[in-house]
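Field reference: sequence -> structure
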Amino acid sequence: MVIGPDPWNGFKQLESLHLPEEDRNLIVTFHYYDPFEFTHQGTPWTRQRDKTGVAWQVTQKERQAVAQDFEQVQAWARRQNRPIYLGEFGTYEKGDMGSRARWTACVARQAEKRGWSWAYWQFAGDFVLFDMASQKWVQPIREALIPPQGLRQD
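Structure field:
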């Protein structure tokens, strides 16, 4: 069974997740959308509706923020002796494609570095990985998730 903390499987709420010690068949999931101002820019259902143009350059500070967040999750997982599944991560379509691809690659590689499985949100929609109209992959996002042979970076 896969289970995560309330609300919305936020990693910052892991400490409030109390699992039965005897049930070792639980996999813990969390969702990752930080920084929210970047990943959700232009989303009509949030306060980011009118905020666009937020770039993600994969600076040392940006990479370190992701790594620190993931280390927080990893530390919790070690203390609880639980496997982790990054059940959702992605960027809304209003962000520039270069930034979206850089962020996506960074998040996927940080998860893999810790031995976590992951799932991108979403296949076809406004966090799109596959364009249903053209029946084509959104190649920068696809390559960020699954880099061409020999191009994987940390």
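Note: The longest helix spans residues 60-80.
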